[in-house]
Amino acid sequence: MLIGDVARRSGVSARMLRHYDSLGLVSPTGRTDAGYREYSGEDIRRIFHIESLRSLGLSLRDVRRALEEPGFTPSELVGDLIRQTRERIAGETELLTRLRRIGAAEPAGWEDVLQTVALLQALGSKSAGRRQRAAMASVDEVPVPVEALVEAVLSETDPNVAGALRWALAQSGDAGPALLAEGLGSPAAEVRKRAVRSIAEIPDGEATALLRDALGNPDLVVRRYAALALGARGVADAVPTLIDMVVEQTNDVDAADALSALASRPALAEEIAGRLVDRLAHRTAVSSVRRRLTEALADIPGATASRALVELSDDEDRAVALTAAYVLGLRDGR
């Protein structure tokens, strides 16, 4: 079969077939009387073998090894091809993400595109200072897609940069909470923590609803951050978790402050005082726990808290009795 016929039937151009011949990959078995290349059936099968291997991403050098080295084993080469393909896909995915973010910023001209690219690169910089400046600039100078800010804040380890990113997200509009909510379900504990802290700094609205849902999150850290934020927003659902935090001495001062803020509503003050008294009634609680619960009653107004403190001032546990007496003195001096 002449080279033109082979090219038509195999889909490999005559030029490439000549290149294969020059490399010694596949040379026509014979020649016609006129000197033209003439390919045998075996030559054509070899051409198809070459094209099949090239379709996997093999170089012509690797194709030669595969076809000519008797001891060649493909497993290592295939492993390298898998790694290279994954790297290529990751690179293309990163490029696609960047292009989508630039498009989301709705640039008016190439200057806007260049500014957005520069800011996105700065958010991924190894320099914490550069990342922090980029977070600040995203609010007043160059708009950055919220998706990029969310990705940055969920991966940020530097506390100062994280604070700047959370602030930027709080100014970014309504899209942030929904994207951050995905972080609450991350398998990584640190990502869940960053997500709830970021949601906590977004003003009322969808963020508050997400924080309510977070009270039922399997992650205890997420529940605690959500409770502190909801307490500051006056959401009564946070009370049980806040009291647990006082008992467990986990951010107990902040939890007591949040309970005090919630207790500014008279009806809620009685509920909070009642819950604290119920926990105090558990005599199995260790002295330090009962003392913290007594201290938490200090800033809870109302008759229930006052009665409980009077009774506790005669508690058999001296530390609790002294704490209650001290607290009563402060309340009487108001």
From TrEMBL:
Listed PROSITE patterns: HTH_MERR_1, HTH_MERR_2
Keywords linked to the UniProt accession: DNA-binding
Domain HTH merR-type: residue ranges: 1-69
Cross-referenced SUPFAM superfamilies: ARM repeat (SSF48371), Putative DNA-binding domain (SSF46955)
Alphabetized InterPro entries for the sequence: ARM-like (IPR011989), ARM-type_fold (IPR016024), DNA-bd_dom_put_sf (IPR009061), MerR-type_HTH_dom (IPR000551), MerR_fam (IPR047057), PBS_lyase_HEAT (IPR004155)
Signal peptide range: none
Pfam families the UniProt entry points to: HEAT_2, MerR_1
Protein name (Swiss-Prot/TrEMBL): HEAT repeat domain-containing protein
Lineage: Bacteria, Bacillati, Actinomycetota, Actinomycetes, Kitasatosporales
